[in-house]
Write a structure and sequence with these properties.
Pfam families: 2Fe-2S_thioredx, Complex1_51K, NADH_4Fe-4S, SLBB. The protein has four domains: 115 residues, Glutaredoxin (3-Layer(aba) Sandwich); 205 residues, NADH-ubiquinone oxidoreductase 51kDa subunit (Rossmann fold, 3-Layer(aba) Sandwich); 84 residues, Ubiquitin-like (UB roll) (Roll); 86 residues, NADH-ubiquinone oxidoreductase 51kDa subunit, iron-sulphur binding domain (de novo design (two linked rop proteins)), CATH 1.20.1440. Helices cover 44% and strands 14% of the residues. The longest helix has 18 residues. It starts with a helix and ends in a 6-residue tail after the last helix. Bound molecules: flavin mononucleotide and iron/sulfur cluster. The site of flavin mononucleotide has 23 residues, from strand 9 and helix 21.
Length: 538
């Protein structure tokens, strides 16, 4: 495939789409599908056919349009109309109103901050392209970055561009992507691997699933570019088996890319060859940890091992391996298309670009958002999220999943970037963001995450295996109002021990939800202790 051939496909596809007067796009991601969006799609197709409108109206399925709380969502283009809570019964009314007055009672206001305050890169094509048609992806500029890289850039120039962008890993720790790529590129070895971490086990998180469901080719293109940059000839996508739609669409993307020569031997007529396979995870949170993930891909039980050596030096089958997150790869094509400096214009000094969050919990606009780094938590919760529903009061926002912490109201003006969240005792994590209202007991919240860590601990090291159970039980004592001052001391000491003595990130971060609630909601722990005092003594 040459650049000219790619352009020809893109132009032909754009022409096809412009021939029709209207494009009706139906969200076909897991969220909307669970509320029958497939039936809406089928009803639209049938009704368009029945009315003989096939040459005027194109009906297509697309990925996530973001505002999951209002699903199933249907978008009408070029009019820029979004409809919420659609049913198959609404279909005739939508078609009746095409080009006329929209159906106001179903219309979503697209001028609200939920839409205007976002900035999309990784989600650029979500809700726009049909995830199962490579031509659709190509029409939006897809695979142009790959061809540009293969024909104009040396591998080290690709890495320089990624370094210039300042992109940091979106899987949690925020390690500089360009630096990781250059380490793998420099590592000695004939055989190298590129792995996409799509294990996504954090409670409340669905960013990676949604990206894979909405725009699998973008992730694939990012992986192929990475493989060229580091010198890998085999890639694996490690995705949890609970994500069947993401798996299906990614497999389709691989087949289509192979057919067009973007994968396989001598890609686009160059000496570069690369293959990608899918590996399914069984849904163990610890298998998201990179060394455990690699064990799992090798067919072993997924248990972390000590680092160093890091996977960049000795990873899959002992070979140099690049492990990056889904969203990290999804950022790559645009960086190579537009240049690293373009990407670095967004964000803060140390955290460049945008970040995708799954905004859930007690917030009006639950859904998937992508925002520039540096935006404040308050802007996310109140402007984009629309605040807390049912007249309740905001209490905290939990970021970073089980490895993160709870941030209180008085710190809501903190900018969202890797360092600021860490300084508060939480972390960016992979992008789960759960809003908590005044009805929640923070000890319950901490215990919920501790139960998760306890159950997901692989048991390899004692501090984590035993410590998480003890922490969980201690929190239970507080919940039952049986805890004493001594228990509070033990709780703090044990958190410290589990954090410092555990082998991998799961154990090291497991105490974070307790530590952050102790820091910001200590009064709730003390109140439970005070109530443990017998009434006559009080
Ligand atoms: C317990 C645990 C679970 C993790 N789960 C994930 C995950 O689901 N997805 C992910 O990308 N990274 C996860 N990570 C981080 C990975 O180990 C690794 O840092 C990441 O995939 C690197 O990609 P990045 O540099 O693009 O962020 C997890 C780490 C730990 C300690
Ligand atoms: S810290 Fe926990 S999850 Fe990690 S290796 Fe130890 S026991 Fe396993």
């Amino acid at each position: 495939m040459t650049n000219e051939e790619l352009l020809a496909i893109s132009e032909k596809e754009q022409e096809l789409q412009q021939q029709v007067r209207y494009r009706i796009m139906v969200c076909s991601s897991t969220g909307c599908l669970s509320s029958r969006s497939d039936e809406i799609l089928a009803a639209l197709e049938a009704e368009v056919k029945q009315r003989g409108l096939e040459n005027e109206v194109l009906v297509k399925k697309v990925g996530c349009l973001g505002l999951c709380a209002a699903g199933p969502i249907v978008s009408i283009q070029p009019d820029g109309i979004l409809y919420k809570e659609m049913t198959p019964e609404d279909v005739p009314a939508i078609l009746d109103r095409l080009g006329g007055e929209p159906l106001e009672e179903k219309r979503i206001d697209t001028h609200q901050p939920f839409f205007t305050r976002q900035k999309k890169n990784a989600l650029e094509n979500a809700g726009v392209v049909d995830p199962e048609r490579i031509e659709d992806y190509i029409a939006t500029g897809g695979y142009a970055a790959l061809i540009k890289v293969l024909t104009e850039f040396s591998p080290s120039e690709v890495i320089q561009e990624v370094q210039k962008s300042g992109l940091r890993g979106r899987g949690g720790a925020g390690y500089p992507t360009g630096l990781k790529w250059s380490t793998v590129a420099k590592a000695e070895g004939e055989q190298k691997f590129v792995v996409c971490n799509a294990d996504e086990g954090d409670p409340g998180a669905f960013m990676d699933r949604s990206i894979l469901e909405s725009d699998p080719h973008r992730v694939l293109e990012g992986m192929i570019i990475a493989a060229y940059a580091v010198g890998a000839n085999q890639g694996y996508v490690y995705v949890r088996a609970e994500y069947p739609l993401a798996v299906k669409r990614f497999r389709t993307a691989i087949r289509q890319a192979e057919k067009m020569g973007f994968l396989g031997q001598n890609i686009c007529g160059t000496p570069f060859s690369f293959k990608v396979d899918v590996r399914l995870g069984a849904g163990a949170f610890v298998c998201g940890e990179e060394t455990a993930l690699l064990q799992s891909v090798e067919g072993n039980r997924g248990m972390p091992r000590l680092r160093p050596p890091y996977p960049a030096q000795s990873g899959l089958f002992g070979k140099p391996t690049l492990v990056n997150n889904v969203e990290t790869y999804a950022n790559i094509p645009a960086i190579l298309r537009n240049g690293g400096e373009w990407f670095a214009q967004t964000g803060t000094e140390k955290s460049k670009g945008t970040k995708v969050f799954a905004l859930t919990g007690k917030v009006k606009n639950t859904g998937l958002i992508e925002v520039p780094m540096g935006i404040t938590l308050r802007e996310i919760v109140y402007d984009i999220g629309g605040g807390v529903p049912d007249g309740r009061k905001f209490k905290a926002v939990q970021t970073g999943g089980p490895s993160g912490g709870c941030i209180p109201e008085e710190l809501l003006d903190t900018p969202v970037d890797y360092e600021s969240l860490k300084a508060l005792g939480s972390m960016m994590g992979s992008g789960g963001m759960i809003v908590i209202d005044d009805r929640s007991d923070m000890i319950d919240v901490a215990r919920y995450f501790m139960e998760f860590s306890m159950e997901e601990s692989c048991g390899k090291c004692v501090p984590c295996r035993v410590g998480t159970v003890q922490l969980y039980n201690l929190l239970g004592k507080f919940q039952r109002r049986e805890a004493t001052e001594e228990d509070l001391k033990t709780l703090e000491e044990l958190c410290d021990l589990v954090r410092s003595a555990s082998l991998c990130g799961l154990g090291q971060a497991a105490p974070n939800p307790i530590l952050s609630t102790l820091k910001y909601f200590r009064e709730e722990y003390l109140a439970k202790i005070r109530k443990s005092t017998p009434v006559e003594e009080a």
